[in-house]
Amino acid sequence: MFSYYLKLGWLSIRRNPLLSTLMVAAIAIGIGASMTIITVNYVMSSNPIPQKSDVLFYVQLDSDDLNTLDDEDNELLDQLTYLDAMALMKAGKAYRQVASNRSGLVLEPQGEGERPFSVDTRNTWASFFPMFDLRFLYGGGWDDTADQNLERVVVLSKEINERVFGGEDSVGRSVRLNGMDFRVVGVMDEFLPMPKFYDVTNGAFNEPEEIFIPFNVAVEYEFDRNGNTNCWKMPDGDGFEAFLNSECVWIQFWAELRNATEKQDYMDFLNAYVEQQKELGRFPRPINNRLSDVMEWMEDQEVVEDDARVMLGLSLLFLLVCLLNTIGLLLAKFLGKSTDNSLRRALGASKSSLFIQHMIESGLIGLGGGLFGLGLAWLGLRGIEMLFGEYVENLVGMDWAMVMTGIGLAILSALLAGLYPTWRACSIAPASQLKIQ
Amino acid sequence: MLSMQNISKVYRAGLVETHALREFSLQVDEGEFISVTGPSGSGKTTFLNIAGLLESFTAGRYLLDGKDVSGLSDTESSRVRNENIGFVFQSFNLIPDLNLFDNVDVPLRYRGFSSGERKRRIEKVLETVGLASRMKHLPSQLSGGQQQRVAIARALAGEPRFLLADEPTGNLDSHMAMSVMELISEINRNGTTIIMVTHDPALAEMASRNVHILDGRVSNGTPEIKVAQVASA
Amino acid sequence: MEIGPIWRAMMRNKTGAILIALQIAVTMAIMVNAVSIMQEKNRMLSRPSGIDENNIFTLASVGFAEDFNERATVEEDLAAIRAMPGVVNAIQSISIPLSGGGWSMGLAVEPGPEIDGTGVAVYFVDEHGLDTFGLNLLAGENFSATDIVWRGRSDTSWPDKVIVTLATAETLFPDDPHSALGKTVYIADVIPMTITGIIEQMQAPWNGWDGVERVMLTPNRTLFGSSRYIIRTKPGMRDTLMPQVEEMLAERNKGRIVRSMSSMDEIREKSYRAESSMIKILTFTITLLIVITSLGIVGLASFSVNRRTRQIGTRRALGASKLAILRYFMTENFLISLVGVLIGAALTVGLNIIMIETFSLTRITWYLVPVAMLMLLAVGQMAVFGPAKRASSVPPAVATRTV
Q1: What residues in chain A have per-residue pLDDT under 50?
Q2: What is the reported pTM?
Q3: Are C400 and B52 an interchain contact pair (Cβ–Cβ within 8 Å)?
């Protein structure tokens, strides 16, 4: 019976090509607009590291000024000071932990006529690579001794490796950074977390850094910082040493805590640490330490732009307008003279079978609208890419989940739109349409 | 009052020509009750449309109260129709979404009467056909005969020069048909000219004069009437 | 005009009318709120930055060689750039309006850590700063060459002179901003600076910051390892000079990289790309919406006309002229559209309230609602004209056809 209804639906659609085209178009446009924005929102709010997002926690300590305490806001500083980051790394109370910050170095490629260029750098510790599940093409991250001994080692991104070494296995070779030689220990595979959750304070949708070096080495050689630095209190005196000992925050800190117990233990440790620091005269505010897992942290940092959400709301309303349109068109179709409803009823079809027949026809139109709508959404995403430039390059791809959502949404919308016209069509008394001209 | 002189109507569809009326002539005096009969395909409907200024004609002249109403513009012929002709259709043609009051109101609106004048006329004609009490009802709530009476009321409301009735009882059972014909006769007795197109000889007899159309032309009476005349002679 | 009967007939056959009215209503709600958003974005990106944008460009110099002497490099670079024909002036600084990155410090009118400072953006300039940016000095005087202090990466001291924008003065001294000249303000809680000049207007690097008009200039040159040069050219010469300057600097000193060259126009475009893109997207959406709603009206009206062919013929027979039929359908649509825009007005305000609550958008300017109502009424009438014209062509002879 189902395939019979499909055939009927298809014949009915073919019978009035103009009307059918309009209906499919109405749904397609609504779906196209909605899916474009839904995709952007989806990618913006997607989980960049689903396999670990609930065991990775961003650490915040409230080392801020007492004078600016605003109870309503409950906003904490979003980074740590050098003193606190080092203390937490040394204590090593979590299963794993890592401090890092963003930096910029100059790479001088060896070779005739090669010009030096800037590279986006992340200064971090050995634990960064296992914590964030990074895969390597060649070699791997460095180990703890490299951090302790301030070894000049570097992990390259796939792109930099291709640019400097032509994509070969460059482990063991040397790269000149800021005038110093660094030894390559690993080359990373494609790494594009969307959003760039481990450092959203510096651009949530930027590409990850191009090279990674040990944090202590960057501090030792006073490499330039490229991120946000926030000082509620000026350092005591000039110079880098004074800066390191100051209340300026510039470091991102993540801890891996595998279960609720570990999380609680770590929180206890943080509280005890802050108590101890208070006795030294720091942390004027009441204790307010926070551990946010990946999704919580991104929510807190409002990674999904308001603009995107606004557009989502508007596009769903847009879909509503298209639906109203479709209801009208379906009404025109199902109540028009070209239907054979009454004939079928006279020949023995029950109301419910007519109902199913029409709903299936609606569903078919929804399917058609969904397919074209996805095409339109693809165009829409290309349009957004063109408008916003590199910023959104990584936001505008549709995966299978989105495709299925689009088609599902289209069919569901068409079925909803078809309910009233179908009901009207089935309620007409069989006799009334059977009068011969 | 009404004079159609040598009216011809030719329909052209591609290379095919259909002569619906050939040199058809008819004079109608005030107060007459004319029946127009003929088999199907004879040109009755064409005659009806032309008489009612619903269609143009190919040749001939049509005078209404001495004025030539051939070749009028659409606006002018609409006005002439509105002021002079009262239509009664076979399938009533009441507007289903309007109540009886609003239905009778339709031609009066196009006349441009004031709302008070319209109300007066509507109430009067609904009274005449005996349906004043159901003024606010919808056509679907009335029987066929009642609907036709409302249609007649609508036709009368503008005090037309003549009533043009197209098979007025065609969609009615015999009982209702009788009562509608009685109403039409009564209206004629009160002075309204009536031109009625019908295929029913019994109805045709209720008129004072009969015009028979055959192949688009006036023919000299129906064989049946000739027989009746002979019989009564 | 037969408004009464048209309305009564419509009420007995509501569905088509309701569909169109709802479409118009939702369209209006979307349209007006979208336009409101567009207006807001446009307001944002129309704000002047206060500097001579047409003629300014910037590029960065990043030192990396072991023997890189930043101080000498900067002095020589600036001398060379300023000597080039077509260059009006140039300075070293670390940021520029609308670039998105820079420094801000708190300024207060009284010293002490317990005093809450006001956030002010900092630009380091030398005595050529005002001329390079094209700033208008309202009161006081420019820095002199002897005021300039070289500043290291981790230095915490500040010069004793500062020039502020009028907006900064208004925030710090709300009762009498112009009296700010000569007054002392405190940076980093306790360090005093004297306001020696007030400039008319200059924006901070962050366009979305509520303190975007609060700027201060300090007489500093930086030794941070990398910095920008900001160069102002004579009108029309910017595009030719840009590659020349880049080339010249790269050749001069191989111990540093010259990069990130952009004109101020490009910086502005990038800074407001989100806003201008949003405007384009919303414009497109609104247009599409109107097209869809119009097509919906055309479709539904055509259907409705087709269903009433017999009625139209009857009316014509009863004396309606073609114009009268046209008027009938135009009036009918007008009534529907009227209901639609009235509901639409309510929906618009409702939607706006929701948007204000959830997204802190601004309230719509009141005149948008009546303008949108008139517009949609007009759109509806235009859309229904086609089907109405077709209706008026139904011949009167239709009335005498048997079913």
Answers
A1: 436-437
A2: 0.84
A3: yes
